[in-house]
Structure formats: structure tokens, C-alpha cells
């Protein structure tokens, strides 16, 4: 995993350098903008960097040696490697922007055991004893921060494309990046739509609709899109990209299903989020859809009444968790996770990809679904 560790370190360096260049631009406008840089630095420090890793290994999968031998030094490959690191860094900025927006929509107070962006801006308002509503100010300011990081992500990505030796690869990568932005944005909408409109749909539609949210809100942009972007940066063939997509989508689904499990049963000391946070937010996940399908009517009515109540206390959270466990939904989700991981691994077993990338992708498949946060 030495290459992965190196990639993570280089991505952090690129992000730090980028923010360092942006800082004087904001300070020259107004010193009151310093929180935008300070908060960005903190949100973009550390993390699992899965999207950056999948971008890199997507590139390595199509540009590395299929037989596993070390490639001879290649100036073009070294130049493209620098572009890939920058593109991977852009994906991490895109992810940070999505999290800032997601926390606003979900009314999440914490992110990685620290205040979320809108709560930080809200605290600025309260500490300054400013006029108006601290909550409204915090949400509006965080929305703008998310927009700014999103624009920075595109700026960083566009600059990466100018470094590529092949214009066709740059065009293909740009198309994948644009598609990813569209899919995750509409996926977010589908997520909040389900939280509000689920009652108006037949019971038989709830599970496929929850699965649709998994695919477009998370699975594609967490795994499939970074792989496709990386492969495009490397000039991958149609067969290579198809294999990476066949690996990426099921693994991305498994990744989000694990996230949904952690959102209900995760340890707050590890996840950095309150216990049962998804229950308070009213997430209509695959886990919830499966649980409702087998619960007795009384338990289902209690779940429906309480799910989405932001004031759920510890006792109510524990009651809902127990009902979900008794429904057998956890075992069902674990089987779905295992099945999707198996499909993903089979997709790259004999694919026309570099030997080193196949090995690393198989390791990443285990890592992303065994995580505790």
C-alpha cells in the first residue's frame, strides 16, 4: 500500500498549496473572509481519501503494466502522474463541498466529531452578538462556503487537465467529471425527496426508490466516477472503463449500505456523529425499507411516527434500533453488501487492467466495507 500512502500524502500537499494560494485572494477582499479559508483547511485535512485513491488506481489500471513488471521511466507518464494527483485533489474538494451542503440539508451539527460548517458560522454570529438569526446566518454562510469549495474543485480539476499530454484524455475526463456533478446533485435531491414524499408511494416501490438514492447520491460518485475519471485521464479503452465501472458501481453500493448501517448503529466515538443520527434525520434507506417490510404493523407504525424526529432521545433511538434488529434487516443488508463486493471483485479478476491496480482495487474493496466510520 506504499503507493496509496504516497498518493494520500501528495493529495494533502496539493490541497494545502491550493488553499495557501487562495488565502491572500480572500484576505485582499476583506479580513472577515478568513473563516472561509480556516474552515476549508480543517474540513480538507485528513480523511479516508477514498475518492482520490480510486481516481489514482483507475489511472494506474489503464496506464500501468498489465504483467506487473516495473515500467521504464517515462517523462510523459510522470507529467500525467502530476495531473492525476491534482485531479484526485479536486475530487476531495468536491467531496468536501458536498459534505458542507449535505450537513445543511440534514441539519447535522457535527462532522468528524467537530462542529459542521453551518454550526461554526452560527457560533461566529452568536459570539459576535450580531443582528438577526444565528441559525439562518450559519446556514447561508455555509451554503456559500460549499459553493466556493465546489468552484475551487472545478478550478483545480481544470488546471489538472491542462497538464495532460493527450487532449482526448482531458476531454474524456472532463465529461466524466461533469456527469459525476450532475448525478450526485440530483441524487441529493432524490434523497430529500424520499424523506418527504415516501408516504405517497406504494409500499412495493419503497425499496427500489431507496436503492435509486444509494446509486445516485453516493455509489457512483464515491467509487465508480473517480475510477472512470482516473481511467479517462490515462486514456483507457472502452473495455478497461467498462471493467472499472462493473467493479465501481456494486462496490459503491456496498460502501453506501455500510454507511447507512453506521448511520443507525455506529459508535459515536468512532463515527464522530451522534448515535442514530440517520434516524433523527429521517433517512429512508435500504435498511429502513427492508426493516419496514418484515416488521409487525405496530412496530412499523412506531417507526414511521418517530423516524425523522430531530428530538429523538437515547431511549427512543435504542427502541428503534432494537426494532430494526428484530426485523432481520441487518442480516439482509449484510448479505447485499457481501453480494455486491463479490460482484465487484469478479469484475476485475480477469479484466485488461494492470496487475498492481487489480491487487490494490481488491484490497480497497475490503477496506471500504469493513470501515467503522
TrEMBL record:
Write out the GO biological process terms: isoprenoid biosynthetic process
List keywords of the entry alphabetically: Magnesium, Metal-binding, Transferase
Cofactors demanded by this protein: Mg(2+)
For molecular function, the Gene Ontology terms on record are: metal ion binding; prenyltransferase activity
Enumerate the InterPro entries for this protein. Isoprenoid_synthase_dom_sf, Polyprenyl_synt, Polyprenyl_synt_CS
Annotated Pfam families:
polyprenyl_synt
The family annotation for this protein states: Belongs to the FPP/GGPP synthase family.
Protein name stated in the entry: Polyprenyl synthetase family protein
What taxonomic classification does the UniProt entry list for its organism? Bacteria, Bacillati, Actinomycetota, Actinomycetes, Micrococcales
Amino acid at each position: 500500500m506504499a503507493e496509496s500512502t504516497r498518493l494520500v500524502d501528495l493529495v494533502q500537499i496539493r490541497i494545502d498549496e491550493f488553499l495557501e494560494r487562495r488565502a491572500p485572494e480572500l484576505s485582499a477582499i476583506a479580513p472577515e473572509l478568513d473563516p472561509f479559508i480556516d474552515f476549508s483547511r480543517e474540513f480538507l485535512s485528513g480523511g479516508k481519501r477514498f475518492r482520490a485513491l480510486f481516481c489514482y488506481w483507475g489511472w494506474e489500471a489503464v496506464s500501468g503494466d498489465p504483467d506487473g513488471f516495473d515500467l521504464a521511466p517515462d517523462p510523459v507518464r510522470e507529467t500525467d502522474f502530476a495531473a492525476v494527483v491534482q485531479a484526485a485533489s479536486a475530487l476531495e474538494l468536491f467531496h468536501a463541498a458536498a459534505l458542507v451542503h449535505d450537513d445543511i440539508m440534514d441539519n447535522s451539527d457535527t462532522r468528524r466529531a467537530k462542529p459542521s460548517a453551518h454550526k461554526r458560522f452560527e457560533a461566529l454570529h452568536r459570539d459576535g452578538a450580531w443582528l438577526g438569526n444565528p441559525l439562518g446566518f450559519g446556514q447561508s454562510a455555509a451554503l456559500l462556503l460549499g459553493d466556493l469549495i465546489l468552484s475551487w474543485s472545478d478550478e483545480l480539476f481544470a488546471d489538472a487537465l491542462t497538464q495532460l499530454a493527450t487532449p482526448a484524455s482531458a476531454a474524456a475526463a472532463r465529461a466524466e467529471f461533469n456527469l459525476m456533478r450532475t448525478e450526485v446533485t440530483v441524487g441529493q435531491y432524490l434523497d430529500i425527496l424520499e424523506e418527504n414524499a415516501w408516504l405517497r408511494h406504494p409500499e412495493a416501490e419503497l425499496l427500489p426508490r431507496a436503492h435509486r438514492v444509494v446509486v445516485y447520491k453516493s455509489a457512483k460518485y464515491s467509487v465508480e466516477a473517480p475510477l472512470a475519471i482516473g481511467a479517462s485521464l490515462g486514456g483507457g479503452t472502452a473495455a478497461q472503463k467498462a471493467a472499472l465501472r462493473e467493479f465501481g458501481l456494486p462496490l459503491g453500493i456496498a460502501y453506501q449500505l455500510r454507511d447507512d448501517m453506521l448511520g443507525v448503529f455506529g459508535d459515536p466515538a468512532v463515527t464522530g456523529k451522534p448515535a442514530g443520527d440517520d434516524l433523527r434525520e429521517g433517512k429512508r434507506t435500504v435498511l429502513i425499507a427492508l426493516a419496514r417490510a418484515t416488521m409487525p404493523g405496530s412496530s412499523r407504525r412506531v417507526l414511521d411516527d418517530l423516524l425523522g424526529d430531530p428530538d429523538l432521545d437515547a431511549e427512543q433511538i435504542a427502541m428503534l434500533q432494537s426494532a430494526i434488529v428484530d426485523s432481520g434487516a441487518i442480516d439482509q443488508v449484510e448479505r447485499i453488501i457481501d453480494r455486491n463486493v463479490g460482484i465487484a471483485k469478479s469484475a476485475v479478476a480477469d479484466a485488461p487492467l494492470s496487475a498492481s491496480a487489480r491487487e490494490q482495487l481488491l484490497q480497497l474493496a475490503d477496506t471500504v466495507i469493513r470501515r467503522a466510520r
